[in-house]
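Deliverable D5.2: sample structural annotation.
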Amino acid sequence: MIRKGCALLIFTLIALGVSPVAGAEKTITLGVYQEPETLNTYIGVQTVITYVHKPFAEYLIDVNEKGEYFPVLAAEIPTVENGGVSKDGLTITYKLRKGVKWSDGAPFTSADVKFTWEAIVNPKNLVKSKSGYDLIQAVETPDEHTAVVKYKEFYAPYLTRFAPVLPKHVLGGLDNMNDAPYNRKPVGTGPFMVTEWASGNYIAMAKNPHYRDASKVKIDKLFFKFIPSREVGIAQLQAGDIDGVWDLIEAQIPMMENNPNLALCLSNSLTSERLILNHSIPTPPNNGNPDYPHPILGDAKVRQALDCGIDRKAIVDKLLFGKAKPGTTEIPLGWAANPDIKPVAYDPEKAKKLLDDAGWKAGADGIRQKEGKRLRLKITTTTGNKLREMVQQVLVDQMKRIGVEFFIENVPSSVLFG
């Protein structure tokens, strides 16, 4: 696991030195190397959706760059002290902000909060996760500006739910929202609204005339331009064709630091880059079923060997200019990981012993075999991400040293996560 310790977040890298003409329309163009499969974050699983939806979609409670909660559609953060959280933690009362309208002019009310929960737990909707929502017993709406969420059991991260809120007046009358027009041209309460989605080209947004603080929105139009890779985006940024690039990485910091025309904003990322191992058999009809273990990765000793055979420090030093830290768990170090947990030490000899103990013996070409089967594994990531592709090449080499054959087969993010 490699933690992206200084990841650049969207909207934080903007080309400077271009002053808009007084009275002229102000436009920002951001390059993203993934095209979203949908703009409905409850259905879509791509990382890019999380960024593209923020200008139009709003949460009850959001988190700032310091990891602090702040109210958005809620008027305040519910606490035990203000009566928003019951002493047993099972009842959360949200007082909603007044005067909020959806981008089509309809009022935002507590009915939208209740509908969001109903839509997520509706078995007809192909949502990616019901975590937390499946623990809710009911959502009561005593008035338009109060939503009372009652949990069946305590759910610690309750403030992270209802992110975002869905419009009942748009989606409520549908049998399901899987293919709803909303997914490509959503209605939101944020400062912008989606005006056009040109497939393979861009998503265009304009100022939401019904936004409660419309006078504070200084940008007239916002474009998310689809680009082949972040490297292409950097070239377009330097040429002045776009104003920002999504998902830049530590390896690009030295080049950016030396460019006087760019503003570089760094912060600890709340995400990490990690190698996820498939524990189930990869072939039909039982692929994905944990009761049918993977013929190779089902063995804990093999998984431990892979862990010991990865030189994380080499990846950080060679590919990230030393500007990241090896991770320790699935939880990023910049968020809530236990600082006392140490990274797994690079120990190829231990890795070889573990594989020996597991019955995998080196063949004539150095790749291990067991019962006539090669220790060969497919490693897959999203296309268009040069850093991940370079990490893959390093992993292929590192695995070969312990007798494991990795082969690369990448696909677009919509295919990988779909």
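Annotation notes: The radius of gyration is 24 Å. Residues 1-22 have pLDDT under 50 and may be disordered.
The annotation will be released with the project's public dataset once the embargo ends.
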